[in-house]
Amino acid sequence: MATNADSDPVIASYDVYLTDSEISRYVLQYLDRPANQAYDDRHGQKPTALRLKPQTGLVEVDVPISTRVNYDVGKGLRYGDAIKKSRSAREGGAYGMAGGFCGGSAGGGGGGKVKMEDGDVEMGGMKKDGDTEETASLLRLQTLGGRIKTPEDGDPVYMLGAFRGKDLHLSPVSAVVQLHPQLHHLDALDEVPTKGRGKARKEGEEERAAENEARTIDVKIKAAGEDGEVAMVAGNLELLKKMQDEKWNAYEWVDAETGESWQTYEGCMINQEIETLPQLQSAVEGEDYLDQMSAPRIDPAHPELTGWAMKQNRKKQQEGSPAAE
């Protein structure tokens, strides 16, 4: 008679190693992108830049837009021109959540600014009648954005696995970031009419024009309500202000198939000297581990006892059972 072990034999076993947990590793998820169409050089859409605000957890990635298929050139020129004028007027600007939801805001003395990268809005190539090199701009980049979730107790710990022969190397993931298309081009388009009117005003109306400018968030809450609601609103406003003030850290994007990328992979995902690694020691007992992984256990005879108390009660019963016999 065949046993379970015979019907489902072990076909391989691996030694497990943990890599350096001090290295930051982020998993970027593109929710609207098929897995077989990666953002890389092979598919002609290698990201041009990655930006990170480490304190508030904001992440942005710039990816090229294909202008040859399913692309409206008229709207591309309109949006590209809006971004060019908006960012040029402010010497760079952050939109959406990164700017505290103040369009193109450069509040905090430039803390929230993003300088325009070369090629963000490419000039020339496709112009309408009457356009010049200064006015014709084609939108060629799309910005994807997301936010790193602050870890909480009970959150799962994700690991990246890399096999090398009979060894499995596990690397802890710092965060999983879901990236969505950002509508920065629409924010820039909303700014253009305001700026055009501001330039046409007389000197005596400069103060009124300045009132329409986006500025650092400074809102005082005076509305009546429960203390919890007021505190929540105040906390959200404070977070938006921090997002607006924090500076971006810019990083160069290295394609996955380059030699430099493979060298980084070897150094960050594979332990090079496994002989010198210390042996892992379990910090919890097997039953304690099951308690932490499982739903709270309830004794029908003593519903008031759950978890640790239930285990202690059972332990006392087991210790007293020999004496009772």
UniProtKB/TrEMBL annotation:
Q: Which residues form the signal peptide?
A: none
Instruction: Kindly state a single biological-process term from the GO annotations of this entry.
Output: tRNA transcription by RNA polymerase III
List compositional bias (Basic and acidic residues) regions by residue number.
Answer: 201-213
Name the domain of life.
Answer: Eukaryota
Sorted alphabetically, the Gene Ontology cellular component annotations on this record are: RNA polymerase III complex
Extract the Pfam families matched here: RPC5
Region of interest: Disordered: 194-213, 295-325
Which ranges of the sequence are coiled-coil?
A: none
Q: What is this protein called?
A: DNA-directed RNA polymerase III subunit Rpc5
Q: What is the lineage of its organism?
A: Eukaryota, Fungi, Dikarya, Ascomycota, Pezizomycotina
